[in-house]
Write a structure and sequence with these properties.
The protein has 206 residues and is of the alpha+beta class. The protein has a single domain, classed as 3-Layer(aba) Sandwich (PvuII Endonuclease, Chain A), CATH 3.40.210.10. The protein is 41% helix and 23% strand. It is built from eight helices and eight strands. The strands form two sheets. Strands 1-2-3-5-6-8 form a six-stranded mixed beta sheet, with helices on both faces. A two-stranded antiparallel ribbon has the order 4-7. A hairpin with an 8-residue loop joins strand 1 and strand 2. The longest helix is centred in the last third of the chain and has 19 residues. It is globular and about 55 Å long. 27% of the residues are buried.
């Protein structure tokens, strides 16, 4: 996906809750795309840009590149549907032992996010190491015990990574989260907010 810097700024400003000076029809169209239940393309793009990475085009393969370390990232955005509180969940579809081993070898980082009414609530990042036990168990049960070729949806949630040393918060909109308390389960919300406060205090230390 190639987007002009001007449109990129409009998209980011809107996702970050900034005032946007743009055609109302464009803003309406962005609202439609940002809340589209069947496509996460624009939410993925926003997540990658907020994290400070370079998007990698195409639907297959990794989603982003850290241009400083040259390390590729996996992006997992989520959208609050107004009903079900999010648990920081994500998954790999059609997941195999071979892919699992490759992800471990790559020391894969996962960039997650949550969107509420077209605005970004947070962008976080954590390492594959935090979810490997959860994934390994699912692959073992589905593939090696039940002889399936792959795990249809190898998933995990916040409890796998929220206390892991690799967790970092790229961005958080605390007001948006607190004004929409049902967008996240309580324990996940409290853990992320506490982590954000701790990060802020750490950054202020001399």
């Amino acid at each position: 996906m190639t987007i002009s810097p001007e449109l990129q700024k409009v998209i980011l400003d809107k996702a970050l809750g900034e005032d946007v000076d743009a055609d109302p029809l464009l803003l309406e169209l962005l609202d439609i795309y940002m809340n589209d239940k069947n496509s996460s393309t624009i939410r993925e793009l926003i997540t990658v840009l907020i994290a400070g990475y370079q998007p990698i085009p195409g639907k297959l393969g990794r989603d982003a590149l850290d241009t400083i370390t040259q390390k590729e990232k996996e992006c997992k955005p989520k959208n609050f549907n107004g009903k079900t509180p999010q648990r920081g969940a994500a998954c790999f579809n059609d997941y195999t032992r071979k892919r699992f081993n490759q992800d471990l070898e790559d020391d894969l980082d996962i960039v997650g996010s949550l969107f509420v009414d077209g605005q970004c609530a947070f962008v976080i990042e954590y390492n594959m190491d935090s979810v490997k036990d959860k994934l390994d168990k699912q692959i073992h049960e589905k593939c090696e015990v039940k002889s399936n070729s792959y795990v249809r949806s190898a998933s995990w949630a916040y409890d796998s990574y929220v206390d892991h040393e690799s967790l970092k918060i790229h961005y958080i909109n605390q007001d948006l989260i607190m004004n929409n308390p049902k967008c996240m389960v309580k324990d996940f919300r409290n853990a992320i907010l506490a982590h954000a406060v701790l990060d802020e205090l750490t950054d202020k230390q001399p």
